[in-house]
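Exercise 3.2. Students should predict the tertiary structure of the chain below and write it as structure tokens, then compare their answer with the key that follows.

Predict this chain's 3D structure.
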Amino acid sequence: MGRPAPDVQWRTDHRPVRARRHRSGTSAGPGAVGRRNDPTALRGSTEPYATYVHDLRPHAGAQLLAAWMRELLAAADWDSPLVQDPFGLRCLPQVHGAALDAWSALDQVLSVEINAAVENPLLNADAEGYHHHGGFHLARLGLALDQFRLGLLGTAELSTTRLGILLEPTFTGLPPFLAEGEDGSSALMITEYAAQSALAELRGAAQPVALGHAVISRGVEEHASFASTGARRLLESVEHSGLVLACELVAAVRALRMRGLVPAGDGELRSFYEGAAERLNSSVADRNLTTDIHEAAALLAAS
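Answer key:
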């Protein structure tokens, strides 16, 4: 995945504007539709997304994601074989919903910052005066960026658990690593290495910049937000998160193919699957998977 450019509108006429949605902050985060193929491949339960569940613990992000899951899986025509699914499926609204809440908080902060007057001193032409102040300090933005990077880390951690589930015969009834059945075939095993490597990078980028501290200018400027560092680390996090989700998507599409399944109905999930199946190599032979991962990452970036 290429590194995204910041997606922000600037206006000079002092009319309020809103921060435009970055691809990491869409209604369900990066690779939103792509990761929804897993419940179909694994015959996961739809109970975790029930309205009743989320009405009793009404966090906005979890409610939003659960509602979308209900919409995507409305045509589900299976009964889950397990009493309770692994956390990668069962706790998806809670973990991914927390990232959505973090994005919403960051969006609100950005919308204020884009329209803020932060010059120091701040001139008041009407009163013919000025104010020395600290309104330029980006403590709130730094904290919001920290929170969102941590939220992305959580979504990626859950993605790697779903990847592991997809490669495990206990859950799929398919050969280990989604191989073609030959003894010693590694198939998609390497995708776990790639995903865990990207996850390690995410974990490093998620370290809160608010932990930083600096005292300069002979002691009178004795605090720093490090928000610019947090923003750069967010760009890195989006890239690494996309790689994790691409590995999951490759495994989900292969599992569906091997089970002879397609998402039920003719909605968004079915459409996404068909597009992914058309672009991703259908061979299950051991081979270099770099092209597959890049194709999956491009699909997710465009979704």
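Discussion points: The first helix runs from residue 37 to 42. Strands lie at 122-124, 129-131.
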